[in-house]
């Protein structure tokens, strides 16, 4: 059946809008987009298609406090609008998320743990995993993470049908947080967890709140931290996915600024890293740095700083733009004076994109 004239016009208009957004954005500049409907941080962000970005889970403001959420929201790039989809099966923060084909995968993350004396916040790793069908707007259960491998805040890489989770954490409390060095993988074709070869099954050092992606045949793990907000790292770990027996390598090219709570995305053969927390030189404790890592030359380039510095979010790339929805405006737990009152956590609904 031939598409109707209105349908053809809509398709052309949508493609025009995507192109117009990219062309209106000059290289090394920031553009503001429609704010996310609900301010949040510690959520997952993924590219669904060349017209759609999704955010899910995280922390939102409720009354005078905050709590975990099960919200799944889509951003439509051509219309610059948001919509709400079927809720995630459970409330989660620091989720490990990825997209393969037309499916969105949620693999583990952090959830509310049992009460602990003297501790007001006790988030622990969950093994529960789910898959979301974009077309049907439905969630289904997946095989849980194998016992002892559950974690949140992992660095996620996608290679063909495989999803890799590198590092992460199993507990986040008021005054304590751990970091793990394990690497696990999920096969989206078989729907099963798959053992990583021994030489690639551990990072050179435990890492959480880092960022990274697969570029070409190599999985990159960038920055992050080793236990605690101030134990930031500037490392770049690399794994050749075509020859995993060689194990992880450490690049000689360190980040210009060491930081954790960062986020980023790959565009072409470059990886872009932004923001973060643990900055001792600002009143908010947040970094505004923007940096690009050329995976071919193994060189870092400092870019135009963030107009609205944040931590505790994730990024997604479409075309020549890197989209960054929400995040935290101040280092969690750090006392900051805001309009005459003291603030310990400040969630943002700001949404912008960096033009590569």
TrEMBL record:
Q: Does the keyword Signal apply?
A: yes
Top-level division of the source organism's lineage: Eukaryota
InterPro entries in alphabetical order? Gal_Oxase/kelch_b-propeller, Kelch-typ_b-propeller, Kelch_1
Entry's Gene3D superfamilies?
A: Kelch-type beta propeller
Where does the chain cross the membrane?
none
The signal sequence is 1-24
Query: By what name is this protein known?
Result: Kelch repeat-containing protein
Query: Which organism encodes this protein?
Result: Fusarium oxysporum NRRL 32931
């Amino acid at each position: 059946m031939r598409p109707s004239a209105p349908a053809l016009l809509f398709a052309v208009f949508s493609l025009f809008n995507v192109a117009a957004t990219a062309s209106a954005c000059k290289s090394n500049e920031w553009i503001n987009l429609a704010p996310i409907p609900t301010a949040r941080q510690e959520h997952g962000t993924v590219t669904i298609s060349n017209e759609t970005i999704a955010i899910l889970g995280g922390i939102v403001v409720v009354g005078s406090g905050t709590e975990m959420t099960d919200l799944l929201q889509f951003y439509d790039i051509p219309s610059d609008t948001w919509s709400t989809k079927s809720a995630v099966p459970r409330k989660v923060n620091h989720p490990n998320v990825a997209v393969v084909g037309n499916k969105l995968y949620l693999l583990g993350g952090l959830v509310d743990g049992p009460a602990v004396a003297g501790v007001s916040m006790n988030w622990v790793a969950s093994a529960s995993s789910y898959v979301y069908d974009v077309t049907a707007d439905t969630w289904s259960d997946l095989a849980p993470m194998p016992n002892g491998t559950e974690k949140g805040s992992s660095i996620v890489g996608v290679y063909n049908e495989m999803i890799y989770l590198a590092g992460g954490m199993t507990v986040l409390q008021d005054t304590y947080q751990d970091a793990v060095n394990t690497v696990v993988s999920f096969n989206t074709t078989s729907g099963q967890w798959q053992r990583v070869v021994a030489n690639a099954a551990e990072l050179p050092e435990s890492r959480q709140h880092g960022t990274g992606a697969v570029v070409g045949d190599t999985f990159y793990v960038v920055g992050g931290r080793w236990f605690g907000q101030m134990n930031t790292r500037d490392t770049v770990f690399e794994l050749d996915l075509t020859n995993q027996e060689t194990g992880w390598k450490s690049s000689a090219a360190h980040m210009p600024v060491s930081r954790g709570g960062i986020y980023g995305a790959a565009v072409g053969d470059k990886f872009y890293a932004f923001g973060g927390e643990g900055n001792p030189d600002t009143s908010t404790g947040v970094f505004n740095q923007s940096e690009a890592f050329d995976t071919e030359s193994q060189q870092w380039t400092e870019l135009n700083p963030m107009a609205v510095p944040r931590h505790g979010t994730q990024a997604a790339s479409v075309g020549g733009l890197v989209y960054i929805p929400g995040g935290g405006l101040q280092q969690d737990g750090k006392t900051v004076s805001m309009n005459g009152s003291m603030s310990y956590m400040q969630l943002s609904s700001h949404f912008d994109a960096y033009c590569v």
